[in-house]
Design brief:
The chain has 375 residues and is an alpha/beta fold. It folds into two domains: 203 residues, Isopropylmalate Dehydrogenase; 159 residues, Isopropylmalate Dehydrogenase, CATH 3.40.718. It is 42% helix and 21% strand. It contains twelve helices and twelve strands. The strands form two sheets. Strands 2-1-3-12-11-4-5-10-8-9 form a ten-stranded mixed beta sheet, with helices on both faces. Strands 6-7 form a two-stranded antiparallel ribbon. A hairpin with a 7-residue loop joins β6 and β7. The chain is globular, with a radius of gyration of 21 Å. It binds nicotinamide-adenine-dinucleotide (NAD), 3-isopropylmalic acid and manganese (II) ion (MN).
């Protein structure tokens, strides 16, 4: 019996979580996955009511879960950072979720704003380092509020932290290549035996200490993966290239801050924030991993019942993959693919007029129909 901790959170978080968890309930029996949900009342409302962000005893309870599903945190009435750092970043760090895995995949039937690009060109995965860099919160103020104020926030990069993340990326490229060789490889590359590619995205031309460490580690780790082609892009060029030539990417490995930024761009390539999913992974399974849509609490549309639930549903698929129930993840992705490939309900972000629940129901019906077909 798997215990799934649920932090529905703020804004559209609870709206998309409800639908995604219904999909989990639907798929579970067909794959022999038994689970119980434990709901954690965390987020802006609790903070405003009690002044508590994440009490230690609640964190201890979360640690006992097999995995965590998070809707979104962030509340217009709470100062920026209180909930984001106090809940999300705290859990990512405390549970050693050092990989933030963010697939960027365009599904047939979804429009990308990128001209002349389709599902064949947009299928990459970003491995975002998730425990270091500017996110550590190393720094502070002196003379705050005066005209001589100094604010410092330091990027922390450790050999251990960088290496484990890069190794994860190479292993992922290997697995992807085994399933289907990377289509962006040239004939000559294939002839040399390459099956996949990892692109390091950094800024070695400016961050000559921190990203020198990244580059050296990348080069050293690559030796253990002779069938994986290596590539390097400065982050600014990567932003350009993700738009003009997304087919050049298979697996991208990058720092926490850059990964945050390029995955919102990645979300747009795959059809918008409403479709982008993520997993904060503790690959060793020592601590629970946490799955969440890439998007936030979307205060501009919260309460209207029109948030796209697909990012959250895809995140549930990633949760099942991580718990070794990949058959369930595949079933969920197939059901969503079916909904997206055929005319049917769409939330307004995808140009439709349907509600969160209507799209969720369409996915649930597709699950059911796919199952009936294979029975
Ligand atoms: P956001 O992702 O919440 O919203 C950006 C835009 O995308 C908005 O126009 C929103 O309407 C749209 N959008 C987001 N999710 C959508 C969905 N499911 N369906 C349709 N449209 C969707 O980012 P923001 O506005 O920068 O941040 C809002 C709050 O969320 C802030 O407090 C921020 O700190 C927080 N945040 C939290 C997380 C998280 O919990 N993982 C992630 C990002 C931002
Ligand atoms: C994300 C979010 C978070 C981040 C914020 C809310 C702390 O933007 O998950 O991408 O920067 O990691
Ligand atoms: Mn982000």
């Amino acid at each position: 019996m798997a215990t799934i901790g649920v932090i529905a959170g703020d804004g559209v978080g609870p709206e998309v979580a409800r639908v995604a968890l219904a999909v989990l309930d639907d798929v579970a029996p067909s794959i022999g996955f038994r689970h119980e949900l434990v709901h954690f009342d965390l987020g802006g409302e609790r903070f405003l009511r009690t002044g508590e962000v994440l009490p230690d005893r609640v964190q201890d309870e979360l640690q006992k879960c097999d995995a965590i599903f998070l809707g979104a945190v962030g509340h217009p009435a709470v100062a920026p950072g209180v909930l984001e750092k106090g809940i999300l970043l705290r859990l990512r760090f405390a549970f050693h979720q050092y990989v933030n895995l963010r697939p960027v995949r365009l599904y047939p039937g979804v429009e990308t704003p990128i001209k002349n690009k389709g599902p064949e060109q947009i299928d990459m995965v970003v491995v975002r380092e998730n425990n270091e860099d500017l996110y550590v919160g190393a720094g502070g103020f002196t003379r705050k509020g005066t005209s001589e104020e100094v604010a410092i926030q330091t990027s922390i990069n450790t050999r251990v932290g960088v290496e484990r993340c890069i190794r994860y990326a190479f292993n992922l490229a290997r697995t992807r290549g085994e399933a289907r060789p990377f289509r962006g490889l040239s004939e000559a590359d294939r002839g040399q035996g390459f099956t996949g590619q990892v692109t390091l995205v950094a800024k070695t031309n400016v961050l000559t200490f921190a990203h020198d460490l990244w580059m050296r580690t990348f080069t050293e780790v690559a030796v253990d993966y002779p069938e994986i082609k290596t590539d390097y892009n400065h982050v600014d060029a990567c932003c350009m290239r993700m738009v003009v030539a997304p087919e050049r990417y298979d697996v991208i490995v990058t720092t926490n801050m850059f990964g945050d930024i390029i995955t919102d761009l990645g979300a747009v390539l795959q059809g918008g924030m409403g479709l982008a999913s993520s997993g904060n992974l503790n690959p060793e399974h020592v601590f629970p991993s946490m799955f969440e849509p890439v998007h936030g609490s979307a205060p501009d549309i919260a309460g209207q019942g029109i948030a796209n639930p697909i990012a959250a549903i895809f995140s549930i698929a990633m949760l099942l993959d991580h718990l070794n129930f990949g058959a369930g993840g595949d079933k969920i992705r197939a059901a969503v693919a079916k909904v997206l490939a055929t005319p049917g309900p769409r939330t307004p972000d995808l140009g439709g007029k349907s509600s969160t629940t209507e799209v969720g129901n369409a996915v649930r019906q597709a699950l059911e129909a796919n199952d009936a077909r294979t029975r």
